[in-house]
Amino acid sequence: MDAFLISTGLVSIAEIGDKTMLLAIVLAAAWRRPLPILLGILAATLGNHLFAAAAGAVLSHWMHGAWVRWVVGLAFLGFAVWAVIPDRFDERPDTTEKTFSGVFWTTTAAFFVIEMGDKTQVATAMLAAQFQSVVAVVAGSTLGMMLVNGPAVLLGETAARRLPLRWIRLAAALGFAATGVWVLAAG
Fold first, then answer.
1. What's 94's DSSP letter?
2. pLDDT of residue 137
3. Runs of H (alpha helix) within 63-185
4. What is the average pLDDT across 97-104?
5. CB 125, CB 52: distance < 8 Å
6. CA–CA dist 132, 54 (Å, integer)
7. Could you tell me the end-to-end alpha-carbon distance of the chain, in angstroms, rounded to an integer?
8. CA 101 to chain centre
9. What integer pLDDT is reported at residue 138 of this predicted model?
10. CA dist list (Å): 86 to 109, 139, 149, 180
């Protein structure tokens, strides 16, 4: 249960103000088709985070004991720094056919690609390495992504302008730092 709850909390906090959240807002504003956008985000997140968690689980089998603790702990301290650096997503998508299928597949592809190497994907890999529970981590990280991107799609640009992103980034940084210290101290 810890793997699920920690994954949900860390990923949802880290996702606020992230480039994928900004993409969700841009897509919602451009296409005004929330259902295929939400389903595309869900599909992309499941695929991307499953890949990341599997990589993290493999990593944990190659490194044992103190090595896993140090790699994961230092990675989360790095995420703390990364979390306070704002992401920018300035491009609006080209208008594509606004069919359900067109919006779904464009959203899925865009989210999958933009999430590659993102802090939430790397955090998912590190959480899977720490907890060695791919299913719980993927379920938690996916829920965390949807908790942030769902409202972003439904509320659009208005909600993003009203969120105090600087303070939320600081909260994400503190959460990552606390997790890093906790992992390093647990050994």
1. P
2. 94
3. 66-83, 100-115, 119-131, 134-162, 165-185
4. 86
5. yes
6. 9
7. 20
8. 24
9. 93
10. 23, 26, 17, 21
Q: Is the pLDDT of residue 64 over 90?
A: no
Picking from 134, 91, 142, the residue whose alpha carbon sits closest to that of residue 112 is 142
pLDDT tens digits, residue range 148-157?
999 988 876 5
Alpha-carbon distances, residue 35 vs 28, 42, 94, 114 (angstroms): 10, 11, 19, 20
CB-based burial, 154-174: b 16+ in 10 Å, e otherwise? eebeeebeeeebeebbeebbe
The answer to whether the CB of 186 falls within 8 A of the CB of 38 is no
- Please give the single-letter amino acid code of residue 172: A
Tell me the residue type at 168: I
| CB atoms closer than 10 angstroms to residue 85 | 9
Count how many residues are written for the chain.
187
Distance in angstroms (rounded) separating the CA atoms of residues 103 and 99? 6
Q: Quote the tokens at residue 17.
A: 């103000």
* Cα 167 from Cα 173, distance rounded (Å): 10
